[in-house]
């Protein structure tokens, strides 16, 4: 991965291991909760002293994966057509034919039940973990989020999609949304969707299906992962 080649990656300060905390001091000026950690990678997601194998986290989403890493993995894992989903495909899978704010409906916690792993409390100083998790959660830790059977489209970790970043969703010349839109052919950053365990209404509030953000292709962080896609004849709207 690129974080392994670079020798470092960004870790959320409250997730740092004791070893990483003692040896890491360079924070991002605009977001001081992000710490550059030498040795942080998919294998050591919280920095040196953490290990996905020894810590029993093989069922958690992989993190510290750049867009380039994610795209290459999807192509390798599914050589007959594996790839990152487009933003439109990602939203279609999350909505499952509805127009709700979240995959399961209009309320973040319907009847007080947590359906996603997002920040609980005041960001970034206090996380009550009332949803059961402080950092990443196992991929099947909550019930399926919609009738397509997907997990964690919202929360847990951000997910790369294939599109280059634009400020707004792609539109036609009349300003109307496009059917199965594609992002621009070139750009400097790639789009990510879904929000993460760090999202809260007082901070990023990007755990809605329509919400979006971006990073450079070579960026890896402790709250950014991916899922792969491949072409299918499934009629989601009519099923």
From TrEMBL:
Residues 213-233 have a biased composition (Polar residues). GO terms for molecular function: formylglycine-generating oxidase activity. Residues 171-194, 213-239 are annotated as: Disordered. Pfam families: FGE-sulfatase. Residues 15-229 form the Sulfatase-modifying factor enzyme-like domain. It comes from the Eukaryota. One of its GO terms (cellular component) is endoplasmic reticulum. This is Sulfatase-modifying factor enzyme-like domain-containing protein. It comes from Calcidiscus leptoporus.
